[in-house]
């Protein structure tokens, strides 16, 4: 009987403990649900604290160096190359002979032209004398004079051909490529040498339309060359395209005096100084992504005591991804930069770090 009573008491205690545990868990679960409900009621956002800063408006653009002058030197006449007087890497001056073409046949032609000229001179003199005595007509004398002029022109033409047997450099520079060897047969217009002048180089870059109005011809530009990080270079703007490309970028050329270590084709970065001094100092700015429906709307959300508030501000100039605020903010406010699409003025927010 005593054992039975003990069992009953133990069972009652166990049942009481179980009931207490269940009740306690239910209360804890209720508190957790209420806390989650509170969080669900809030909208997650990212914010940035508004502050004053100095804006660097310098603009950089990448490009490659081009020779100021380059040309493919071509042969003026057809023929066989008999000598090549330069090699790749040779420095040449404008007018210098680079190669010669076989001239035997041309010399025969010029001899024939000179003989024809002598005959034309003799014939014309005879007609001149005969005309004075009435032995020939005026028309016959005119024909004689015309034949003399044609013979003179033929001699000059052969002289030009003889001169063209020497292939001469059209510009001063360096032989970058040699396309012929002695024995090569060339036609008129065939490119035989590539000449480049890199004493002065052009850095060709593309400048965005938002920056093109801030640069001007003659402006000095600092240049960084990737493969020559320890050297400093500078140049002057010599060309600004009057028309943009399809991407609204404007081709700009910067002339750089070569110190001897620059090569055409090198990659470089031009730094355009466009800083406006005091105008861009101690400015109140916010990120452009903070604005609702674009910067032009002037509307953004600020967070006050966990609540989003839609305000209107007066904007100034846009500097890249930063927008100047003239009125509406004092600094120190928390401005929403992400999550605005889900907000209304008065929405509760949860700031995500």
From TrEMBL:
One of its GO terms (cellular component) is efflux pump complex. One of its GO terms (molecular function) is efflux transmembrane transporter activity. Residues 75-196 form the Multidrug resistance protein MdtA-like barrel-sandwich hybrid domain. InterPro entries: Beta-barrel_RND_2 (IPR058792), MdtA-like_BSH (IPR058625), RND_pump_MFP (IPR006143), YknX-like_C (IPR058637). Residues 204-274 form the CusB-like beta-barrel domain. It holds the Pfam family Beta-barrel_RND_2. Keywords: Coiled coil. It comes from the Bacteria. Residues 284-350 form the YknX-like C-terminal permuted SH3-like domain. Gene3D superfamilies: 2.40.30.170, 2.40.420.20, 2.40.50.100, Helix hairpin bin. The keyword Coiled coil applies. Residues 103-130 form a coiled coil. Belongs to the membrane fusion protein (MFP) (TC 8.A.1) family. This is Solvent efflux pump periplasmic linker SrpA. It comes from Chryseobacterium potabilaquae. The gene is srpA_1.
């Amino acid at each position: 009987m005593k054992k039975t009573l003990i069992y009953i008491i133990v069972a009652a205690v166990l049942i009481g403990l179980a009931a207490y545990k269940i009740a306690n868990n239910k209360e804890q679960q209720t508190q957790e649900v209420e806390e989650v409900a509170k969080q669900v009621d809030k909208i997650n956002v990212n914010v940035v604290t508004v502050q004053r800063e100095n804006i660097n408006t310098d603009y950089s653009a990448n490009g490659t160096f081009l020779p100021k002058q380059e040309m493919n030197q071509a042969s003026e006449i057809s023929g066989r190359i008999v000598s090549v007087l330069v090699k790749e890497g040779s420095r040449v001056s404008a007018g210098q002979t680079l190669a010669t073409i076989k001239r035997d046949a041309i010399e025969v032609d010029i001899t024939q032209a000179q003989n024809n000229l002598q005959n034309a001179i003799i014939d014309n003199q005879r007609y001149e004398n005969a005309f004075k005595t009435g032995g020939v007509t005026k028309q016959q004398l005119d024909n004689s004079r015309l034949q003399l002029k044609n013979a003179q022109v033929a001699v000059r033409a052969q002289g030009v051909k003889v001169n063209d047997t020497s292939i001469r450099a059209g510009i001063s520079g360096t032989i970058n490529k040699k396309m012929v060897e002695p024995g090569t047969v060339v036609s008129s217009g065939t490119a035989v040498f590539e000449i480049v002048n890199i004493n002065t180089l052009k850095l060709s870059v593309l400048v965005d339309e938002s920056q093109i109005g801030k640069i001007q011809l003659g402006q000095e530009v600092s240049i960084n060359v990737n493969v020559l990080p320890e050297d400093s270079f500078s140049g002057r703007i010599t060309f600004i395209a009057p028309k943009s490309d399809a991407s609204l970028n404007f081709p700009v050329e910067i002339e750089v005096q070569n110190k001897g270590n620059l090569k055409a084709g090198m990659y470089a970065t031009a730094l355009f100084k466009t800083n406006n001094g005091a105008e861009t100092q101690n400015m109140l700015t916010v990120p452009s992504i903070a604005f609702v429906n674009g910067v032009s709307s002037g509307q953004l959300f600020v967070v006050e005591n966990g609540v989003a508030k839609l305000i209107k501000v007066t904007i100034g100039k846009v500097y890249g991804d930063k927008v100047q605020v003239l009125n509406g903010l004092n600094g120190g406010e928390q401005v929403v930069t992400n999550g605005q699409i889900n907000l209304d003025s008065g929405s509760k927010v949860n700031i995500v770090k």
